[in-house]
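Dear colleagues,

For the upcoming journal club I promised to circulate an example of a predicted protein-ligand complex. I picked one with fe (ii) ion because it came up in last month's discussion. The inputs are reproduced below in full, followed by the predicted structure.
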Amino acid sequence: MYDLHCHILPNIDDGADDLSVALKMAQIALGDGITHLACTPHIYPGLFDNTPEDIAAALQSFRKELDAQGIDLELAYGADIQVVPELVENLRCGAFPTLNQSRYFLFEPPHHVPLVNFDRFVSDALSAGFVPVITHPERLNWIRGHYREFVSAVQAGAWIQLTAGSLSGRFGRAARYWSEKMMGDGIVHLLATDGHNCNSRPPLLAEGELMAQKYVGKEEAARLVLDRPRSAWENADPESIPPPPGCSQRGKIDSGKKQGFLRRWLS
Ligand SMILES: [Fe+2]
C-alpha cells in the first residue's frame, strides 16, 4: 500500500518526537503492509515554517537511518500544506512541495473555521496544473453545513483523502459519520494514515481499507490505498486514473451513478 500523508520525520512538526519514534512508526507501517510512504510534515506559517529544503534534508537523513536498520520502506516527501492566500504562487515557485514532486499536493483546510473562497483556491490550483488532495475533510469541525463545498471541489477536479482511522472510529463518531457519508457518495479518492506517533495516531492503513470494503467493495477499496496513491506518487495524469464510483472520469459527479445522500444535492 501507499501512504501519501504521514508525519513520520522526526523533530520537524507535531509528528514523531525523535528518531526512535520515527523508526518505530516505520516498522508499524511496514508491518501493516505499507511499502511506500510520503513524509509530509506540516507547513503552517508561523507555527511550522518548513521549507522544501528542510524537508528534503530530513528525508535524506531518515532514509539513511532506515537503511542502517534494514527497514525496507520506500520514501518520498511532500507537505501537509495549510491553505494560505499565497498557496498557488508558492506551489508554482517551489516554496511549497508537492507529493514526490508530482502535480498532486496535500491541501489542508483550517480545522475550526470554514475556508473562505474554498472554490477559488481549488480552481486556481487546478488551473495552474496542480491537483489539490483535500486532507481529512471528515475531521473538520465545520463540515456540517458545508458538505456541498466538498462535493463541488470534487466536481471541479480536486481529490478527497480520508484518514483511515476515521473509518475505523479512531477519531470519534462525527469523523466516522462524515467519512461513511463520503464513502457512500463515492467521492473519496484515497485513504492515508496521517500518522503522528506510535500510539494515539499510528500509521495504519489496512483497517481503513477493510472498513471501506463495506461501502465500495474490495476492488475500489484497493484503489483507495494502492492504485490511486501510486498513480499520484508517479505523477500520472488524473484523467488516466479510474475515478471513485460516484464520479465520472473528469471528477464530475456522474448523474448515472448518483448515490444516496448525494442524489439529494444534485437532483
Ligand atoms: Fe496531517
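Two points we might discuss: The longest helix spans residues 206-233. Residues 5, 7, 80, 135, 194 surround fe (ii) ion (CB under 6 Å).

See you all on Thursday,
B. R.
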